[in-house]
Specification:
Layout (H helix, E strand, L loop, with lengths): L1 H84 L1
Length: 86
């Protein structure tokens, strides 16, 4: 009877330790996952900011190119009208 209680006690203790190990492992995994998510979020924000900066730069240079194109078209139209009237 004494041996049976001892074996049951050891088994119960092992079960408690195994349960605690599982809980600790889950917490550790969750923390690692949260860190990975945070890193991915920061990386995405960085990429988004970089894309926004590049888009602003392209918009500024694009507006200059557009003005040049409009001016060129205006000059061609003026030349065409002058040639047609001459």
């Amino acid at each position: 009877m004494k041996n049976k209680k001892l074996i049951i006690g050891i088994a119960a203790g092992a079960a408690v330790l195994a349960g605690a190990a599982v809980i600790i492992a889950r917490r550790r995994t969750r923390k690692n996952h949260e860190m990975e998510v945070q890193e991915a979020k920061d990386h995405f924000k960085g990429k988004l900011n970089e894309l926004q900066r590049k888009a602003k730069k392209e918009l500024k240079s694009g507006s200059t190119d557009l003005k040049d194109a409009v001016n060129t078209a205006k000059e061609r139209a003026t030349d065409w009208v002058n040639k047609a009237n001459a």
